[in-house]
Amino acid sequence: GAVVSQHPSWVICKSGTSVKIECRSLDFQATTMFWYRQFPKQSLMLMATSNEGSKATYEQGVEKDKFLINHASLTLSTLTVTSAHPEDSSFYICSATPGHYEQYFGPGTRLTVT
Amino acid sequence: AQSVTQPDIHITVSEGASLELRCNYSYGATPYLFWYVQSPGQGLQLLLKYFSGDTLVQGIKGFEAEFKRSQSSFNLRKPSVHWSDAAEYFCAVGARMDSSYKLIFGSGTRLLVRP
Predict the structure, then answer these.
(1) Chain A: closest CA distance from residue B1 (Å)
(2) Phi, psi (5° rounding) for residue A87?
(3) What is the pLDDT of residue B92?
(4) How many CB pairs under 8 A join A and B?
(5) Which segments of chain A are extended strands (E)?
(6) Interface of A with B (CB under 8 A)
């Protein structure tokens, strides 16, 4: 149980375009979903927290207009990187929680912006 | 402020040897503690967690961790390491911030296993 999927697992896009990443909790309802960014050989950096039906809460320094988060249902959250640039290339990981502290992580999405 | 410290960036052990990965936390209240493992290019898998009760926690894949409040530590152990255990290990503490329960991660320890 407690499986979280992400799609796509990797994506290459051209500079200036937008890309959407989906995060789904497959066998539980997620009251909250989280989006992280991970640079090579580094820990996870929390970007934003999203609750179903409400606006996401962004961490300090994260551009909310660049990283659009939508949490339309209790099993789906999306992250859209708008007007992507090479510096947005990274590994993006989502997690979902049925409540409290326990988070279940997706397999991650490798974004490369050319 | 809440924080997690994993003092070892890399650890190398021989296959079959025992393993201990260190984790120290800073948190004002009773901590909720986690160990996750990440294989290259993958997401994080929960190994074990401590919320309350018995301070020795058993997890998956033969791992265990011991919560020591006096030392603010939550070290991960395994009696006999397998080559497939080579991965990145993250310790985390749960913290309630901005009306959400968030995880604060350590910087990670990369485990290398010698054949």
Answers:
(1) 16
(2) -70, -10
(3) 95
(4) 55
(5) 4-7, 10-13, 19-25, 32-38, 44-51, 57-58, 67-73, 76-81, 90-97, 104-105, 109-113
(6) 4, 6, 32, 34, 41-44, 46, 49, 51, 57, 91, 93, 95, 97, 100-108, 110
d(CA B21, CA B76): 5
CA angle B40, B102, A61 (to 5 degrees): 80
Comparing CA positions, the residue from B34, B93, B41 lying closest to residue B60 is B34
Residue showing tokens 């997401």: B43
Nearest to B18, CA basis, from B71, B76, B70: B76
Q: For residue B101, what pLDDT is reported? A: 84
Pairing of the two strands B10-14 and B109-114: parallel
* pLDDT tens digits along A15-56: 999 999 999 999 999 989 999 999 888 899 999 999 888 889
> Are residues B77 and A36 in contact, defined by beta-carbon separation less than 8 angstroms?
no
pLDDT of residue B95: 84
Which residue numbers of B have CB closer than 8 Å to A's CBs?
A: 32, 34, 36, 41-46, 49, 51, 90, 94, 98, 100-103, 105-108, 110
Which amino acid belongs to residue A100?
A: H
Q: What are the φ and ψ backbone dihedral angles of B85, each rounded to 5 degrees?
A: -80, -10
The pLDDT of residue A112 is: 97
Q: Is B40 helix (H, G, I), strand (E, B) or coil?
A: coil
